[in-house]
Design a protein that fits this description.
This protein has about 280 residues and is an alpha/beta fold. About 40% of the residues lie in helices and about 20% in strands.
Length: about 280
């Protein structure tokens, strides 16, 4: 099944940037693009007249149609579909993530149509997503000027980490350099400790380097809090990739302080990858 790249649009000024990033990802991955707009205002609960509902649907459909035309202007020949949903945006995008390759969303800005802050939608999506989420932060570069650099934060040097694998694949597709960063969050102990940490990081990357031999990789063990280290590294990157795990006994992901810091402060796009 050729699962799509999904872009959640709210009609704000940030939507064209979201579309452009989604077009890039769909093109790199050879996937169709689905442009989705969801709003509870479209839900027919009797609070508006039928004529009012039809007017809203026409307005939102026009939003999606214009976004589709913009996407095709960027990448003629790309398969682009549009979907209008009468649902709460965060919940709708979580559902869409179950059959998506990637979901692309902005992280801030007030919806033009009386909806919630998109930031809250992005956070809900990230918490519940079943596929990687690419969040376009306020500081992220435009899709066509993004540096050829991908950064991955390695918290637990697991050779099967989905975040590491996703970062390698993205770097390969982009022809980009990959920087793998493990931040200790405090002072190093003996010099041997740093050597051991570097050896463990190298082992975590080894299998992926064999799978993606075209990717140029550098690794760094840094004496900083992970959030600070990754925000700093985002200044020269197209994307920063981090993993998130499910809380014990619940379906939501535990984003943690690192993910929150990146969504609010990163100068690149941010990718949150569910680890399990």
């Amino acid at each position: 099944m050729n699962t799509p790249v999904v872009a959640g649009l709210d009609g704000s000024a940030a939507s064209p940037r979201c579309v452009a990033w989604a077009v890039t990802e769909a093109s790199l991955r050879g996937r169709p693009l689905e442009l989705v707009h969801a709003s509870m205002m479209l839900y027919r609960d009797g609070s508006l007249s039928e004529a009012a509902y039809e007017g809203l649907e026409e307005e939102r459909t026009r939003l999606l149609t214009e976004a589709k035309a913009y996407a095709l202007g960027l990448q003629p020949g790309l398969e682009v579909r549009i979907r209008l949903l009468a649902q709460e945006p965060g919940r709708a995008l979580v559902f869409e993530s179950e059959h998506a390759e990637l979901v692309v969303v902005g992280t801030s800005g007030l919806e033009n149509f009386g909806g919630p802050l998109l930031g809250s939608v992005a956070l809900r999506l990230v918490a519940g997503a079943r596929c990687p989420v690419l969040a376009i932060t306020d500081g992220a570069p435009d899709a066509d000027t993004a540096p050829a650099e991908v950064v991955v934060g390695v918290a637990e040097r697991d050779r099967e980490s989905r975040a590491i694998g996703w970062a390698f694949e993205e770097a390969s597709l982009r022809g980009a350099h990959l920087s793998a960063i493990h931040a200790l969050g405090g002072e190093f102990g003996a010099g041997r400790e740093k050597v051991d940490e570097d050896t463990s990081l190298a082992e975590a990357l080894a299998g992926w380097r064999s799978k993606y031999p075209d990717v140029r990789v550098s690794r760094a063990i840094v004496d900083q809090h992970p959030a600070r280290a990754l925000v700093a590294a985002s200044d020269q990157a197209a994307l920063v990739v981090v993993g998130a795990t499910h809380r014990h006994g619940v379906t939501e992901l535990a984003l943690g302080s690192v993910g929150h810091a990146l969504l609010h402060q990163a100068l690149s796009a941010v990718v949150i990858v569910p680890e399990a």
